[in-house]
Amino acid sequence: MNLDLIHSPTLLIDLDKVGQNVARMTNKTMSHGLTLSAHAKTHQSGNIACLLRQQGMESITVSSPQMARYFASLGWKQIHMALPPIDAMLPLLDDLAHQALFSVNISQPAHIQTILKLKAPVSTLIEIDTGQGRSGIPIDQHDEVHVFVEHCLSQGIDLRGYYVHNGLSYYCQSKEEILNVHHKALAAISLLPTISPCGHEVWFGDTPGCSTAQDFTGITTLTAGNFVFYDIQQQLLGSCTLGDIAVCMACRIIEKRGTNQLLVHGGAVHFGKDSLRLGEGQVIYGKVVELHENGWELGDGIGHLVALWQEHGMLTVNPEFFRKTKVGQLIGVLPVHSCHTAAAMGSYLSTNGLFVPSIRNWPH
Q1: Which residues contact 163 (CB under 8 A, 6 or more apart)?
Q2: Rounded to an integer, what distance in angstroms lies between the CA atom of residue 271 and that of residue 360?
Q3: Within this chain, do residues 204 and 275 fall inside the same structural domain, yes or no?
Q4: pLDDT value, residue 147
Q5: Helix, strand, or coil here: 200?
Q6: 19-32: average pLDDT
Q7: Distance CA 142, CA 193 (A)
Q8: Would you state the pLDDT for residue 199?
């Protein structure tokens, strides 16, 4: 990787670390007798998805019809859209159902009405909300779930089971809290109505739980996605180590201020605006690392990205590191939330100098 060729914010990717993260999760799913349908919303890249396919993953989870079309065009034949269908999607959904074994989330009667208008077969998973309040039927509303299941079956809907994103794990402060939230979700899932005499599938996905837990009783498929890259949030939660984080933003220093501040070309349009609050109330948007031609060095307490504007970011670093830097120098920042950073950037430069495209580079 020739660092001299990087003139503007660039998202670096260490494909060796990606491969290790993928292997770890695929080994876990296999050892528990589960299948993996990793969510592609983190990487949104056919090249990264290929690494998952090489490890035996045959199904992929997406977050939009456009993303489903992208992966269908790359030969994926089992695609789940973790989003409910609406009438505006009908032409795209019919096209997708002809290209792949296609399934969607549902949670309200309006979604059933849309599916009944499709010309091609689509299977479904009922989305369940474990308490985050984002989407799906609340997991403790058994009567509501039962009525919805009966309505689906009466309408001839191909109902495969449940889809559960245990988003509460992202609000935890430790690995112990994650495991507690995880086990509560498993206990609640076990009480859901059985969909058919043949049993039911339960698709389950949150990177903190899937990375730390060893009990997946009642689960059939894991759909976590962030584990492919990980990030500072996951590291602080206990889902991974700093060495597992596989993406890093490369930014140029454009000003030095005082004794410990570095202004870089790299702002909210590049990182997103996800932040974390450390001890004593310090808010950060990323962790500073040193770059070299083969990737990055973690260092020890170099500093953090502490402020973001549209195109600018402010780093605070230790005085020793500050003295070594100069305006124009390239510096690395590990993102707080790699999903948002990857979506903002739209492509990657690998640490061995290769361009890695994503859906943003897809001509369709």
Answers
A1: 80, 82, 105, 125, 126, 127, 128, 136, 203, 223
A2: 16
A3: no
A4: 92
A5: coil
A6: 97
A7: 7
A8: 58
